[in-house]
């Protein structure tokens, strides 16, 4: 809950401290914590930190995938967003409405209106 609050308030410095505590108590493999960390770092424009958590995640849910996609779009990296989306689909995860809207935004940023 605290990580989500940090993401909503774009408070990455407090989020880093919470992340340290997550590691200290051994919750870094908890998919709720992983998703919240990906969302936090993505919303705070720390896409490399989000990707590090994303790549180390054990089991990603749709929110985590969408947060990573959105983080890349917000960082001006729509190609990377589409790569994550393709990997999401390839691994059998079903995108939700938010994921589709985010991917449409990535396509528009790339001028790929037909794909959008």
Automatic annotation (TrEMBL):
Intervals holding PPR repeats: 61-95
Keywords for this protein: Repeat
Pfam families: PPR (PF01535), PPR_2 (PF13041)
GO annotation, biological process: RNA modification
InterPro entries in the record: PPR_At4g14850-like_plant (IPR046960), PPR_rpt (IPR002885), TPR-like_helical_dom_sf (IPR011990)
Gene3D superfamilies from the UniProt entry: Tetratricopeptide repeat domain
GO terms, molecular function: RNA binding
Domain of life: Eukaryota
PANTHER family: PENTATRICOPEPTIDE REPEAT-CONTAINING PROTEIN
Protein name in the entry: Pentatricopeptide repeat-containing protein
